[in-house]
Write a structure and sequence with these properties.
By secondary structure, the chain is of the alpha+beta class. The chain contains two helices and 15 strands. Strand 4 and strand 5 form a beta hairpin.
């Protein structure tokens, strides 16, 4: 009913207010879902991301000085064994961090186990007194045939193989191991370096990583610091 002095469209104002309220609720809900909740989910997912099993390059390095060579190991390592087999002159270092299980690095000098078999091969070549590296292969069982397998000196099934044109022995009998070995144009498992003081020596390098998330690139990081004296 019309009354003097009162607006005739009061219901329209009430409807407009309701519409504005609904719009504000929708806008706030969208802001919460896509901005606030989205950021919260991202943080939560980030908290659950596992640590990458990698020795960081900015970690304190373990510097090694031997009579004929020098190298730097990323992180904290200790010399765990030396010349453990009287047939070879060799060194073995173990990574000292309980978060990473079973990381080892080995150097053989002059007396090289030429039939030593491993699962991943890293091609190496000489650049003066230092090492030039190629790309680590995938697991050799995926590209190696078994028609010429042999039992090597370690008692495992070794199959002749090649990666990037470089020959080596694939550890076909233990395909689940995470072991990287080096080989080069100088011969199977052999790299020849000449130092200014020590003269010419042959080297063979091995890296083993038994961690649940192995980082097979560490051997390349180590070898870039290796120099014959």
């Amino acid at each position: 009913m019309y009354e003097h002095g009162k607006p005739i469209h009061k219901s329209n104002y009430r409807l407009l207010a309701i519409i504005i309220g609904v719009v504000l609720v929708v806008l706030f809900g969208g802001f919460y879902l896509f901005v606030i909740r989205g950021n919260h989910d991202a943080v939560t997912r980030g908290d659950k991301t596992p640590l990458v099993s990698t020795v960081k390059t900015n970690a304190t390095n373990t510097n090694v000085q031997e009579t004929d060579f020098e190298l730097s190991l990323p992180g904290k390592w200790k010399l765990a064994a030396q010349n453990w087999d009287n047939r070879y002159q060799a060194w073995q270092w173990q990574f000292q961090d309980k978060r990473y299980a079973g990381r080892w690095f080995e150097v053989y000098q002059d007396t090289i186990p030429a039939d030593y078999a491993y699962n991943y091969m890293l091609p190496v070549s000489a650049n003066g007194d230092s090492v030039t590296i190629g790309s680590v292969s995938g697991n050799c069982a995926n590209f190696t045939t078994t028609n010429q397998t042999k039992i090597n000196g370690s008692g495992t099934v070794a199959a002749p193989s090649k990666w990037q044109g470089i020959s080596f022995y694939c550890d076909y009998g233990r395909q689940s191991l995470q072991v990287v070995g080096t080989s080069g144009p100088d011969g199977i498992n052999t790299l020849t370096l000449k130092g200014d003081k020590s003269g010419t020596h042959k080297y063979f390098f091995l890296y083993e990583d038994n961690d649940i998330d192995p980082d097979l690139g560490i051997i390349g990081e180590i070898l870039t610091t290796f120099h014959a004296k």
